[in-house]
Structures are given as C-alpha cells and as structure tokens.
Amino acid sequence: MAEHSPPADVTVKVVGSQWYWSYSYPDHGNIEFDSNLIQDKDLKPGQIRLLEVDNRVIVPQGSVIKFLVTASDVLHSFAIPSLGIKTDAVPGRVNQTWTKIDKTGVYYGQCSELCGVNHGFMPIAIEVVSKEKFAEWVKNAGTKTASNRSKMSFAKE
Length: 157
Hints:
The chain is mainly β and 157 residues long. It has one helix at 131-146, and strands at residues 10-17, 20-25, 31-35, 57-60, 64-71, 76-80, 85-89, 95-100, 105-111, 123-129.
C-alpha cells in the first residue's frame, strides 16, 4: 500500500552509498552534494563525534519535506529516529517518506542497515532553518556545491 503524503514543499533525493550519503534538491536548481562523516581529528568544539557531517541536509521549518530514498550499491536505511523516519534504501528502487518539522535545530540519524565494514560511519544530519534562511541557502548553495557535484544514481521514477 502506498503511503499517503501531503503535497511537498521541498523534495530531497537521497542516495546511500558505501559509506556516505548523497543528496539532491530537484525542486531547487538540482543542488547536489555528498555528505561524509567528519573524522575525529577534524571535529570542532561542539560537534558530535560519529554524527557530524561535512554537508548537512538543510530544510525549511514548518514545510512538508518529501524524501526519495535509494542506494547505489547495497542495502542501506535512511533513519532519523527523532523525526520518526526509517526508510530502506534499495538499489534499483525508490522509496519515499515525508516529514514536517516545526522546530529549528539539527536532527541526527544514521544508516540502520548493516551495509558493510564502515556501516557505523554513515551519519545523517538534517538542519532545520527558517524559510528565509533556507531561501538564502538555496541561493548560495548552487555555487558552493557546483564544484562538489557527484553523479547521483536513481532508479527510474
């Protein structure tokens, strides 16, 4: 049975790969970036060990966010427990889930499917900002992430 979801304000495509996540915003200039664990030696004060990433997913507060989730290699699972999200990332298939987050802040998750030797090092960080800050991020992200674009592998939608 298909999950009922309200119309999305923001769509985020998510691709799990051994051992990082890739994200794309198709409704916002197709911004694309990879998100990797920050190594212990590179952590800054206040960053959470094994949960902080180099590129967070940024979404606007109070908006319906649709996540389209797949994988490029093996099974992964996109899980953010504090948001009630756990969706399998399966190569060749696109699963979807949605959320609406009313409180700004950073929400952490991890891959929750045993996917190989570095499975425990695939954190997810979602930063919820005001709609104004999100619009500013979208404006700036196109140029910032253009040099870091990766090839995203999605099943046919």
